[in-house]
Amino acid sequence: MEIKKKYSNGEVTVVWQPSKCIHSAICFKTLPSVFDPKKRPWITLEQEETKTIIEQIKACPSGALSYFMNDEKNHESQVLEDTVVEVLANGPLLIYGNLKVKDKDGNETMKSQTTAFCRCGASKNKPYCDGSHVKIAFEG
């Protein structure tokens, strides 16, 4: 069973799925008042405005962080309407939006928000990025 941890400030709930995290560190480098891996819990939402938190979550390259507004009825269905592809310099291919990923065994997984795909070839979690590009000094 996949672990999902939830953190709320009453207005928004942040969902963290550690198995998806590629440890890009974007969250805590950009918003250390909310994301601090040295603390427990490592996510505390009370120090920032909800809008700022949501913008940071949208920047998560792996999709390990997601959110839902507490007053919405269908909580974990935050779906982006447009699909955007972005190539990160020396890093993964990011897809923002809705897509169906079929693995080598034919298993399908629906993805929404942000999905990071490996471009360096070193990921141990293909087709997804696991941050290996940093270790091998990938350039591209």
TrEMBL record:
InterPro entries: Divergent_4Fe-4S_mono-cluster (IPR010693), FeS-contain_CDGSH-typ (IPR018967), MitoNEET_CISD (IPR042216). Pfam families: Fer4_19 (PF06902), zf-CDGSH (PF09360). Keywords: 2Fe-2S, Iron, Iron-sulfur, Metal-binding. GO terms for cellular component: cytoplasm. The keyword Repeat does not apply. The keyword Transmembrane helix does not apply. Residues 90-139 form the Iron-binding zinc finger CDGSH type domain. One of its GO terms (molecular function) is 2 iron, 2 sulfur cluster binding. This is Putative Fe-S cluster protein YjdI. It comes from Arcicella rosea.
